[in-house]
Write a structure and sequence with these properties.
The structure holds 2 protein chains of 2 kinds. In chain A, about 75% of the residues lie in helices and about 5% in strands. By secondary structure, chain A is mainly alpha-helical. The longest helix of chain A is centred in the C-terminal third of the chain and has 32 residues, at about 315-345. The chains are: A mainly alpha, B mainly alpha.
Chain lengths: ~500, ~450
């Protein structure tokens, strides 16, 4: 029931939002609905956390062996919580921005939330594919209608990219379904599939390309900075905070346990190497950016790369770290985008070269900004430190990695580079002298303080006491590692 | 069996009579499906009305009904012989009924010809327009050539099997014996002529010119219902006639499918006019439908019904909107969403369905096609080519969406009545509904 509500609330309220006459009514409605989702999600974590409440199953396409089957497991809980929390924060942070045809804007936002929830909840491969696309289409329209000047070309590239990935994944899913014992799309049936190594290899690529484009993993990343830059900031928050997690999530849930052999054969060697190259490359690019949106976009490629490596090294530590970090990264990057949104609204620019000296004019913002930025560098006491530390340890101790002596230091370099570009951003924006543009700056308002305050509290809380999160994801981690375990096969 | 009546000549009542006639035909056909026969004619085993055929007839006639509701008024603008157009369309429907239910090659031939000849006339019905005349002549010349091929093929097959009844063609020869050269030659000739009729590459060259030249209302009919009917005949022929020697022709169909997908999609990318783009897209969609001929399993026959329905609904809807536009180029659609938000939203649903995005009927249709081929094993390269081409198709379908929603401009549309909007919205809702619950349609095949 909880699982169903998490999809239905945003879906229905999104549809209703299209029919609201005024933009302000739609804005209020969207905020109300997103609070309801948060409430349901927290209830699902606490008092109503009973197995029979967390799942829902109904016949859907019996001829095809597909059911409408949704269930909340640990990882699903965590990511649904992230999705639920992000939307009200996004709405509050962008409260004072006026959109043309605002009712359509908020309707599409809520629809994309419904799609994201569905992706994290679906326990049926075809249903998963449905939601995977459902999350994409509203975002495409949001970015293309309300985006910046070069939006049409950028979002179109994004759409074609992801669509190619999705259809290849669809072929892979249909093939896998034809290999299940009872011809069903159910996730348990998928986990039981046994394929020979050669078949696994080509199915792996069909599926992995779709996920790699979403993350994005290095050679498939070229859509990302343009789209982040051109989209309205509220949409960029959805894209970078939650949507990229779809790719990581799908690797964990739909790739490792289903195709264990090729995940091992490619994941730990070839893909880890690509990712390392991509991380260093993206970090260097982030260092040289002048536009804050592009800087954060590149930094996000670097952070997500580490999670990909951690997932493929298949230890309990690295897997738990990656899941925790998926949540943390969503919160941290949301904080950074909120800062960008504030700066852009106040000063009309996102360029580092045109900002400066804001610590004098907006001390509250400067303080909150520094905390969020430190979390981006993964300083101890912040949430990202826990995640990254676990991931590094996991990669280093992984029984299946062979190149950890190369991987870990190389990834470590990107952490240093992360400090370089993040501190450079802080320095250029809030320190130094004021210029004519920032001379008249004022501090942030209550709603922005509220949003950033919540984010900072979550950063510190998860950094000091991450145990609840780790307990939550334990069941998923154990299941995935059990299904993906190929060591007995290798030893034989 | 229902044969359409000959229509009145009174101009004002014609539309009403046509709708009523078609409605009566639908009711009778459904009655027939459930074992209620109005009259019985001895057809000497030349035709066989099975569930599949009768069900397709219902679907085709319902689509025609929707087509009449949307576009009947527009036909007035084509020329003076308003009643004749309806009569011709009814002849075509008669041909569709024949070719979906044939069990003798002669009836197949008759059906295809009864479809084709009125189409030649409809294509040239805009008498003062040179392009329409040119299209009609082209269509006629090439069409008669393919008819010749078909006759030749039928003759060869008769020479080999000694029978026109499709079931007898391969059942007479023993399964492991090699099929005779006469049979293979006949099969190829039939395959090529059918490929011509469904505009599969490399027999597609007439399609863009004819679809572009013909009056838009009739293009809409030609590209959807007629094409679907010929596909049903295609599947029926190969399913009953040649499935015994599946191995020997499978590869040729796969090549034709691949070529059709490739040429249709790649050429559509470069079009400037939406009408011409839709012509090429119809070639591309034919490529997907050919996958059902390749697979010939139960998924394929369910899938082809779903595919033809999804494709026909979406294309009829799009053409109905296109007819109302003053400018057929992509630029002509700029800013359409601002002036006609409802119609633009419906057009988006149609385009998404054609592109095969989930939640629309077009996705499940493509899904069935892919699944039917994968279930038989082999031809993975074809499936991958097909999905990549589906991604290419997103490019040109989305150009229309971009023009309507993201670009500014003054899209000029003619007067649009409330009832027209109502029907369009209903069709769009149907596309979504079939995209979520395809059983609503497919269950009728069995119950």
């Amino acid at each position: 029931m909880i699982a169903l509500l998490l999809i239905l609330i945003p879906l229905l309220s999104g549809l209703i939002a299209f029919f609201l006459r005024t933009g302000n009514a739609a804005k209020g409605w969207a905020l109300l609905s997103s609070f309801a989702t948060v409430a349901v999600s927290i209830l699902g974590l606490t008092i109503l956390s009973k197995p029979e409440l967390l799942q829902f199953k109904a016949a859907w396409l019996p001829g095809l062996g597909s059911n409408f089957s949704v269930r909340l497991d640990g990882m699903g809980q965590l990511l649904c919580l992230l999705t639920a929390i992000s939307f009200p924060l996004i709405f509050i942070a962008t409260w004072s921005r006026q959109y043309k045809n605002a009712h359509n804007f908020f309707g599409l936002m809520l629809l994309s939330q419904a799609g994201l929830m569905g992706v994290f909840l679906a326990m049926d491969a075809l249903l998963f594919y449905f939601f995977w696309e459902l999350a994409l289409i509203p975002v495409y329209f949001l970015s293309s209608i309300w985006g910046a000047e070069r939006r049409i070309a950028a979002t179109f590239k994004f759409f074609i990219y992801t669509f190619i990935g999705s259809v290849l994944m669809l072929v892979g899913l249909i093939y896998l379904q034809s290999q299940t014992a009872d011809r069903s799309f159910d996730i348990d049936a998928f986990y039981k599939i046994v394929l020979d190594n050669k078949t696994q290899n080509w199915v792996f690529w069909l599926m992995f390309i779709a996920f790699a484009i979403k993350v994005p993993v290095f050679p498939f990343h070229s859509w990302q900075p343009d789209v982040y830059e051109q989209s309205p900031t509220a949409v960029t928050m959805v894209l970078s905070g939650i949507m990229v997690k779809m790719g990581l999530f799908a690797i964990i849930r739909w790739l490792l346990p289903v195709l264990p052999y090729s995940s091992f054969a490619y994941g730990e060697k070839m893909i880890a190497m690509w990712t390392i190259v991509g991380m260093i490359y993206a970090s260097l690019l982030a260092w040289r950016q002048d536009d804050m949106k592009r800087l954060i976009a590149y930094s996000s490629i670097a952070h997500l790369g580490l999670m990909v490596i951690a997932i493929f090294s298949e230890t309990e530590l690295s897997m738990q770290g990656a899941m925790l970090q998926m949540f943390n990264h969503g919160i941290n990057i949301l904080g950074l985008w909120v800062i960008v949104e504030i700066l852009e609204r106040k000063y009309g620019t996102r360029k580092l070269s045109e900002l400066g000296g804001l610590a004098q004019k907006a001390p509250a913002m400067a303080l909150l900004f520094v905390v969020v930025a430190l979390a981006n560098i993964a300083l101890p006491l912040t949430n990202a430190f826990v995640g990254e530390f676990m991931m590094f340890t996991g990669i280093f101790t992984s029984p299946i990695s062979e190149y950890e002596l190369f991987t870990v230091p190389a990834a470590g370099i990107t952490i240093i580079l992360g400090a370089v570009y993040t501190l450079r951003m802080i320095q250029k924006v809030i320190y130094g002298n004021t210029n004519p543009l920032t001379e008249t700056g004022t501090d942030i308002g209550y709603n922005e303080k509220l949003v950033l305050g919540i984010i900072v509290i979550m950063i510190i809380a998860a950094g000091v006491y991450p145990k609840p999160f780790l307990d939550l994801t334990k069941d998923t981690t154990d299941l995935i590692l059990k299904e993906a375990n190929i060591i007995p096969v290798l030893v034989k | 069996m229902m044969f359409s009546g000959i229509l009145l000549k009174q101009r004002s009542a014609i539309r009403g009579v046509a709708l009523a006639g078609l409605f009566a035909a639908i009711v009778l056909n459904i009655a027939e499906t459930y074992g209620f026969h109005l009259f019985k004619v001895d057809i000497k085993n030349m035709m066989h009305f099975d569930r599949f055929a009768l069900f397709f007839n219902t679907v085709a006639m319902i689509c025609t009904f929707i087509f009449f509701l949307l576009s009947a008024k527009e036909m007035e603008k084509v020329g003076l012989n308003y009643a004749d157009y309806f009569a011709l369309i009814f002849f075509i429907i008669c041909g569709i009924l024949l070719s979906s239910s044939f069990s003798s090659l002669l009836i197949l031939f008759l059906g295809i010809e009864i479809i084709s000849i009125p189409l030649y006339i409809l294509t040239g019905s805009d008498k003062k327009n040179l392009k329409s005349n040119e299209a009609s002549l082209k269509y006629f010349l090439l069409g008669s050539f393919s008819t010749g091929l078909m006759l030749m093929g039928i003759t060869f097959i008769y020479g080999d099997a000694g029978s026109f009844i499709v079931e007898n063609i391969t059942s007479l020869s023993t399964p492991d014996a090699k099929p005779s050269i006469l049979l293979i030659a006949g099969l190829l000739l039939l395959m090529f002529s059918m490929a011509f009729k469904v505009s599969a590459a490399p027999f597609h060259f007439w399609t863009p010119d004819v679809y572009d030249g013909a009056p838009t209302v009739f293009t809409s009919f030609m590209a959807t219902i007629v094409k679907a009917a010929v596909f049903i005949a295609f599947i029926r022929l190969f399913n009953y006639g040649f499935s015994g020697i599946h191995e020997s022709w499978k590869f040729i169909i796969a090549i034709i499918t691949a070529l059709t997908l490739f040429i249709g999609n790649i050429t559509a990318v470069f079009q400037q006019s939406v009408k011409r783009m839709l012509a090429y897209s119809s070639i591309a969609q034919a490529g997907f439908m050919l996958m059902a001929v390749l697979a010939l399993n139960s998924f394929a026959s369910e899938g082809i019904i779903l595919y033809t329905t999804a494709y026909s609904l979406a294309t009829i809807g799009l053409f109905a909107i296109l007819v109302k536009m003053k400018d057929y180029t992509f630029e002509g659609f700029n800013g359409f969403a601002k002036h006609q938000p409802l119609l633009a939203a419906a057009a988006v649903i149609f385009l998404l369905s054609l592109a095969g995005i989930p939640l629309t009927a077009g996705f499940l249709a493509k899904f069935y096609m892919i699944k039917s081929v994968l279930d038989n094993g082999g031809f993975l390269w074809l499936v991958i080519l097909a999905v990549l081409m589906a991604a290419v198709s997103v490019y040109y379908y989305f150009r229309v969406i971009q023009a309507m929603y993201f670009k500014d401009g003054e899209a000029q549309a003619m007067e649009i009545s409330v009832s027209f909007k109502g029907v369009i919205i209903a069709v769009a809702a149907l596309v979504i509904l079939l995209g979520i619950f395809p059983q609503l349609l497919l269950n009728w095949l069995y119950f």
